[in-house]
Amino acid sequence: MKTVKTEKKIKVSGLAEFDMTRHLKSKRAMTEYLNQVISDGDDAELATALGHIARAKGMAEISKSSGITREALYKALKPNTKPRFDTVSKVLGALGMRITIHA
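RESULT FIELD:
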């Protein structure tokens, strides 16, 4: 007797949208994600990654800790933006992270 496998077709519109913030539950996951984005060298992706991490941590908490309004954070950390260094520095500080340079 042959076993027949049937494939169920799924429409793309039926798939749930991927939410990166669901995978950023620990500080280690956040750090690894950000390090990977930085090592890839995609400047435009940096703001997106920081936005994902800030949303995973809680945008209100990051806003309060960084001294940047929530609205300004959403604007600065949306995809394909280039936030100023002081914004990146404040957000990283609010996340308890820092930039280090290695040679």
